[in-house]
Amino acid sequence: MGQARDDLGDLRLLDSNNHEIPYAILVREERNETQDFETRIFNKATIGKSSEVTIDVGEEAEDHNEVEIHTTGNDFRRRVSVEGSESGSAWRTLRTDAVIFGFQSEGKSVESSRVSYPTSRYRYLRVRVMADEFVDDDAPEVTDVKVKMAVHEKGYLSSWDVAVPSYQLLRNQGAHASSWLIDFGSRVPCSRLTLTIADPSFYRPFQVEAFDDAQNPELVASGNLSRRSGESVGEPKLITFDREVHVRKIRLQITDYSNQTLSIDSIQAGAAAREMVFELKQPQSSPVRLFFGNAQIQEPHYDFEKELNAKLRTQLIQATAGDLTNNPSYVPEPKPFSERVPWLIYVVLSVSSAVLGWILLSLSKTALRREPQN
Hints:
There is one protein chain. By secondary structure, this protein is mainly beta. The protein has 4 domains: 1-28 and 276-333, no CATH class; 31-152, Jelly Rolls (Sandwich); 157-272, Jelly Rolls; 340-370. The protein contains 3 helices and 21 strands. The strands form 5 sheets. Strands 13, 14, 15, 16, 17, 18 and 19 form a 7-stranded antiparallel β-sheet that branches. Strands 4-5-11-7-8-9 form a 6-stranded antiparallel β-sheet, with no helix packed on it. A 4-stranded antiparallel β-sheet has the order 3-12-6-10, with no helix packed on it. β7 and β8 (92-105) form a beta hairpin. The chain is extended. The relative contact order is 0.17. The model has no long low-confidence stretch (mean pLDDT 90).
């Protein structure tokens, strides 16, 4: 990470025949996202003690995997089935064992109205809600159904140990403070710090800054570090940033007031893991090669990225990176001519000024010669 661009757009993967292999980069952050679709509800019907509605997701339906069902009544538990269809005539079962419920007691309520099913692109959905056999005398009324795409992904963290630097004493708004300048050695993504602190009890304000530009530090986290008497000394303290930053230097500043500087035994940095996903069309006679470090190259924008969701449904095989070696055949693009010969612009300006001066002098002499004739 420290030798590639922040966006990883300089990565190139080549097979044993020197053919470029398309890839996609996954940033394994924890995700909890929901997208709602505009739909049309029709064909409301009652079948015995069940209610049924059909939903049109649209001609160009995107991936969807959840419906939110609203019905009338309180204190119920109703079974739900969901079916999908491309044409509205031939139906495929998506879910049969789902349950929605809603209960109220002493002014409090609890409900569950969402039903998930395998991700699909069916244009039509048919939802059937069965009556609660203990509560409902008739088929429940379905008042609304919303179609959603819900994404719940567990994040994967990449973490590494950092040498604890010597602290420096300073003042923060007039109060005594200590700071640690943490140098990762190269620019890497970072979204958290985990500190092991030896002191048995403390309560100190802190702030963390991205410190690559010492004149313009960027605040990424602030709050209070604390430990009560009796708590485990070995319990690490987690600092989570407001956002992930790509940075080489981080400054941790803790305000001590009249207390001794905290004894930090270890520091661990972390960020969401990055995964490179690619597909090999045929067996390779030698390991594939990964090239990086060309700051001028454009991002590849492979079509493979657009097809990734479908490809991720199959079991992935994990690959491991080998040793890092220099690429002696790489020749960087030449710098612009003006950067290679920076003095040339001054020569051109001097010559241009001399020529312009000569032209003005010639015009002046011509005007003086013509003046007596007038």
